[in-house]
Amino acid sequence: MDGYSDLKISGPISAETFGDEVKEIPCSVMLLGPTGSGKSNVSLHLHQHSSHELLLIPTDFKFLECLVDDKNMGISKDSLESVTQQVTAYRLRNVRTRRLFRDKVYIVDTPGVCDNNISELRIIQEIQRWVNIHGSPKVVLYFHRITDKRLPGSQRRIIRLLEAISGEPSHSISWTGVVTTMWDNLLAHQVASAENGFQQLEAEHFKDICTPGVESIFKFHNTQDSALAIVNKSLLNNIETDLRYGLSTPPLRRYSEGWLRGGPFGKALYELLEGRIAGLQQRLQILEDDIKNRDVLENPELYAIFQRDKAEAEGMLRELEQERLEYLSLPEVPELPPSTGRRIINYVKSKLS
User: Fold this and answer.
1) Are 112 and 125 in contact (CB under 8 A)?
2) Most buried in the list 32, 154, 194, 235, measured by CB within 10 Å?
3) Does 348 map to a domain?
4) Which residue stretches, if any, does this entry annotate as coiled coil (predicted)?
5) 249 with 298, same domain?
6) Under a CB-based contact definition with an 8 Å cutoff, are residues 35 and 113 in contact?
């Protein structure tokens, strides 16, 4: 197993969580992606599959779980419902880099985007809070199901958001790559179509994220070796950006808190938020029409279900409308503090004058 050029494996790999007492983390890999994309769904308890359970995603393990040998860290049941509702970092035991300081490797899991229970605005704010405490990740991996034959509007907006938070590939201190999943679930007649889709992702959909001339889109085969190989290659791709560390503050860290609306990803976040609000308003209208239906009115159990769904939708709509108010209260063009590079230049100028 110890055949990776930038990773030193010294024993069985397991993972442990930690709190904010650990500050600056020198080597972290952040996982982003839609709910159900195969990045994770780790929970604190072991979920058992029952014989009658309907599996919405026929995948045995996710990327994060494949990295570790100790599956008791929490194996998720395969579902389109996101388990991860906050940013959670895992320290990998028995894994270090081969670089000068032999850094420990951390995997940072994030809430799934396009999830019904949390907006992209809240996700970005959670990620920014984590980054401001622990530092920017060395690598950001975005997960995409290769079985998705088309990209719906919501995912296209997510990709634009990813482009904005990543910044220019040649100037970012965090290297961004794309991990395609579900390869192990393809039938023989589906492989050729998936390969064509893979080429299209690289040439079209993710071309502004990928570093020119560098392998930036990977195939995850649902094994530990595949997961480790992707982490290893991604960290190697990050080495060049290490040379620029501190000279270019990434957009995700630069445009946080009161400056979020004026960031390059502010417009994308607002569009996603407006889309969620419009979707919930439409859903509420449909539910209200259904509740008035005679068959529903004459069925107490069905009526109670529709009323419960309506109450949940109304609660979610109130939360999103409050998020919109908070977002719109932020300045559009904030007065940003100078970047680290600009502060260095100003300091040198002051000494020379």
Assistant:
1) no
2) 32
3) no
4) 270-330
5) no
6) yes
What's the DSSP call for residue 243? T
Please write the tens of the pLDDT for every residue from 2-19. Answer: 679 999 999 999 999 887
Judge if 305 and 186 occupy the same domain. no
User: In terms of domains, do 245 and 281 share one?
Assistant: no
Q: Which two tokens stand for residue 285?
A: 């209208």
Q: How far is CA 352 from CA 65, 341, 344, in A?
A: 54, 17, 12
Whether residues 251 and 289 share a domain: the answer is no
Measure the CA–CA gap between 176 and 141, rounded to whole angstroms. 6
Q: Residue 54 forms beta bridges with which residues?
A: none
pLDDT score for 334: 58
Angle, CA 163 vertex, CA 160 and CA 168 arms, to 5°: 150
| Residue 120 structure tokens | 């992209």
Using one digit for the tens of pLDDT, what is the confidence trace for 270-316? 999 999 999 999 999 999 999 999 899 999 999 999 999 999 999 99
Which residues neighbour 156 within 8 Å (Cβ) at sequence distance 6 or greater?
205
Instruction: Note whether 294 and 232 are same-domain residues.
Output: no
What single-letter amino acid sits at 174?
S
Q: Are 313 and 284 within 8 A, CB to CB?
A: yes
Full residue range of the structural domain in which residue 11 is found: 7-44+54-255
Question: How many residues would you count in the chain?
Answer: 353
Place of tokens 């992702």: 201
What is the amino acid identity at position 201?
Answer: L
Over residues 182-228, the pLDDT tens digits come to: 999 999 999 999 999 999 998 888 888 877 777 899 999 999 999 99
